[in-house]
Amino acid sequence: MMMVLAVGLLEPRGPVAETIADLWWLLLGLGTAVFVVFAVLLARGLSRTPGEAEPDVRKRVGRWLVGGGVLMPAIVLVIVFAATVWAMRVMPTTASRDALVVEIVGHQWWFEVHYPDEAVTTTNELHLPVGRRVVLRLTSADVIHSFWVPELGGKMDMLPDDTNALVLQADEPGEYYSRCAEFCGLHHADMKMLVIAEPPDRFAAWVAAQR
């Protein structure tokens, strides 16, 4: 079976990343629309001949101030707020009892990955079964790091004095990379981990091979 290598957050391979990508495209569309509207108005204003008669100038300016300065921003903000709340509500924060639990500890400058139920520990390599929710318990052994697999989900800080939980699911087999998303020292740019999403049977075979 050929593994698919995704290249970024705009090519989601899981439900969490797909929700984030949808929100990104909405924000891009709204930003583009606002830019076009004001670019047209600017071009129209610059094309006017100096001294050209403009009837009811005050009335027109007042309408544009209300429409472009109050109503349009209010509409955009309401849409963005509603879409953000919706995205936060549909993203999973809990998982069923049969979810795979993985503990990941950030170190300067590598990742320690532990599967407590499977009694398996790896370094800089995370295996996930496709189609199954995974609960990642994230912490740090030294400074603040940040876990992020753009194709699968959002960022989550790895704190030295606390444990954060991130629920992910991979919908397609593939090889991805998690790079530390929080500056953590001299070799921060070298801190990355291979993430392999594979069918459940191949994941089970991999776990068995580690014992």
Automatic annotation (TrEMBL):
<keyword id="KW-1133">Transmembrane helix</keyword>
<keyword id="KW-1278">Translocase</keyword>
<comment type="function">
    <text>Subunits I and II form the functional core of the enzyme complex. Electrons originating in cytochrome c are transferred via heme a and Cu(A) to the binuclear center formed by heme a3 and Cu(B).</text>
</comment>
<dbReference type="InterPro" id="IPR014222">
    <property type="entry name" value="Cyt_c_oxidase_su2"/>
</dbReference>
<dbReference type="GO" id="GO:0016491">
    <property type="term" value="F:oxidoreductase activity"/>
</dbReference>
<keyword id="KW-0813">Transport</keyword>
<comment type="similarity">
    <text>Belongs to the cytochrome c oxidase subunit 2 family.</text>
</comment>
<keyword id="KW-0186">Copper</keyword>
<keyword id="KW-0472">Membrane</keyword>
<dbReference type="InterPro" id="IPR034236">
    <property type="entry name" value="CuRO_CcO_Caa3_II"/>
</dbReference>
<keyword id="KW-0812">Transmembrane</keyword>
<protein>
    <recommendedName>
        <fullName>cytochrome-c oxidase</fullName>
        <ecNumber>7.1.1.9</ecNumber>
    </recommendedName>
</protein>
<dbReference type="InterPro" id="IPR045187">
    <property type="entry name" value="CcO_II"/>
</dbReference>
<dbReference type="InterPro" id="IPR002429">
    <property type="entry name" value="CcO_II-like_C"/>
</dbReference>
<dbReference type="Pfam" id="PF00116">
    <property type="entry name" value="COX2"/>
</dbReference>
<dbReference type="InterPro" id="IPR008972">
    <property type="entry name" value="Cupredoxin"/>
</dbReference>
<feature type="transmembrane region" description="Helical">
    <location>
        <begin position="64"/>
        <end position="88"/>
    </location>
</feature>
<dbReference type="InterPro" id="IPR001505">
    <property type="entry name" value="Copper_CuA"/>
</dbReference>
<dbReference type="GO" id="GO:0005507">
    <property type="term" value="F:copper ion binding"/>
</dbReference>
<dbReference type="InterPro" id="IPR036257">
    <property type="entry name" value="Cyt_c_oxidase_su2_TM_sf"/>
</dbReference>
<keyword id="KW-0679">Respiratory chain</keyword>
<keyword id="KW-0249">Electron transport</keyword>
<dbReference type="GO" id="GO:0042773">
    <property type="term" value="P:ATP synthesis coupled electron transport"/>
</dbReference>
<dbReference type="GO" id="GO:0004129">
    <property type="term" value="F:cytochrome-c oxidase activity"/>
</dbReference>
<dbReference type="GO" id="GO:0016020">
    <property type="term" value="C:membrane"/>
</dbReference>
<keyword id="KW-0479">Metal-binding</keyword>
<feature type="domain" description="Cytochrome oxidase subunit II copper A binding">
    <location>
        <begin position="97"/>
        <end position="209"/>
    </location>
</feature>
<feature type="transmembrane region" description="Helical">
    <location>
        <begin position="23"/>
        <end position="43"/>
    </location>
</feature>
